[in-house]
């Protein structure tokens, strides 16, 4: 240390959820590491992006701050109510079927049904809780500290110059500054925009808006209401405070030649549901705006630096994936930096897979958002865009088939060894596809009853699995842009398929395995997930299938009205 400089192990630009999650887990798993978090603002401070997905709960529990967040009494997000697609009817998507949600006292432990739900957080409070938690674990937190220059030599960061002249040097530098990407821009990392969606977001906060529905103690659904030229979000953040925003194409904003406030208030007035919920509410009166153009950085790691969260990429907020991507990425970066310092694995391998995980997830969520917009009758210009994306992958598809392909791809990117994306499992996605294109959702596994594992042309590589502070290499097969990880249900099915190809025997062995390893009440859910995994393996070309007419087949269906996706039931 010198009079005008400070040294540390890890320097993080940004004290939001990315920076605080990274700092907390670094101190948990490598407590001797010195971690400095810099932020230009003084916390608490407002921030948009309040709606979460269930995987965040696992990260909060691992950080050791679930109890602190739960004690803040944020509304429990059980799902969302949508007006979307070709119909004006309302429909509900629920992480946990509402008839299974039990009314429990709060604050509650992270167990049971709370592992299947999420929070709707007031970022004014939430981000401060996370930053203070990182500080309590030993991170040095410096607020109102502006980074004025990122000193670089080639692809190496040499130091962070802070307003006033101080220079902070570190062994690892992390850009968690969000969309602004302070370090990303200084290093000249290019970005791409793999979508035609270029929207602006306009929002404000309201007091005493009515909740559309109250479920048990503090549970509700967010509201996502499509309009002619955009959509509204309605997110209760606490007993009295609500975030309400309007998103529309930037082209519409320019064409209207109105102020953001005029556009915003007009959108609320034109939506009967949101207008009714705000009839007796009071608006803060400070309109905020931002462009929410989706993008992906060309890379998110270098010689001694990393990008995490929205500095690495951003996906349209319609699926509420932003905070989940940020928390998950920061967790994996903490594991990566710990492993680099311990010298446990090849450094290039660790960095390559950290980067691949983050950028693949963002790209897939952008693609999935495109699917949602294309499925909306008010966004017909994206139909051709969906087809062009499919053509880029070598597929010549009709608009309906392109939507279906967009929705069903990338199911293994979100979580290694599991299938799902954006809080949806395969069955729910098929149900949505059927609803959006007004056709029955087909399950390919129903057409066959003999399945043979097909690894021809696949490349076998080791990928990292992140658990309990350690990185464990797991075998994974790659082919045609898809991956087959040898862990979780994929490993179980691969083992079974190595000994049989008959669907009846496969089904029987799955059932026997789950009955011997799980509580009885969990067996049906496990069987459902296993069948969905088999469908993904078939769709991605990991299985060769044929029909033996002498043998029975599966009869899997996605009902038009299901437990998780169904017509709105409020009232």
Describe this protein's structure.
It is a single chain. With about 575 residues, the protein is α+β, with helices and mostly antiparallel strands. The protein has a domain at about 445-545: Enolase-like, domain 1, CATH 3.30.390. About 35% of the residues lie in helices and about 25% in strands. It has 16 helices and 25 strands. Strands 3, 4, 5, 11, 12, 13, 14, 15, 16 and 25 form a 10-stranded mixed beta sheet that branches. A hairpin with a 2-residue loop joins strand 21 (about 460-465) and strand 22. The protein is globular, with a radius of gyration of 24 Å. The model has no long low-confidence stretch (mean pLDDT about 90).
% residues in beta strands = 15-25%
What CATH architecture of the domain at 445-546 do you see? 2-Layer Sandwich
Please outline the major beta sheet: 10 strands, mixed
Radius of gyration: 24 Å
Distance, first to last CA: 64 Å
Structural class category: alpha+beta
Tally the beta strands: 25
CATH third-level topology of the domain at 445-546: Enolase-like, domain 1
Highest-level CATH class of the domain at 445-546? Alpha Beta
Q: How many alpha or pi helices?
A: 16
What form results from the Cα inertia axes? globular
The share of residues in helices is: 25-40%
Question: Concise description?
Answer:
This protein is an alpha+beta fold. It is built from 16 helices and 25 strands.
Give the topology, please.
Elements: E1 5-13, H1 17-29, E2 35-38, H2 55-63, H3 66-71, E3 76-83, E4 91-94, E5 118-119, H4 123-136, E6 140-142, E7 147-153, E8 156-162, E9 167-175, H5 182-186, E10 191-192, E11 199-207, E12 219-227, E13 230-236, E14 241-249, H6 250-256, H7 260-270, H8 272-277, E15 282-283, E16 288-291, E17 295-297, E18 305-307, E19 313-314, H9 322-342, H10 347-374, H11 382-392, H12 399-408, H13 426-437, E20 450-453, E21 459-467, E22 470-479, E23 482-485, H14 488-497, H15 503-517, H16 523-539, E24 543-546, E25 565-567
Parallel strand pairs: 1-2, 1-9, 2-6, 3-12, 9-18
Antiparallel strand pairs: 3-4, 3-5, 4-25, 7-8, 8-9, 10-17, 11-14, 11-15, 11-16, 12-13, 13-14, 17-19, 20-24, 21-22, 22-23
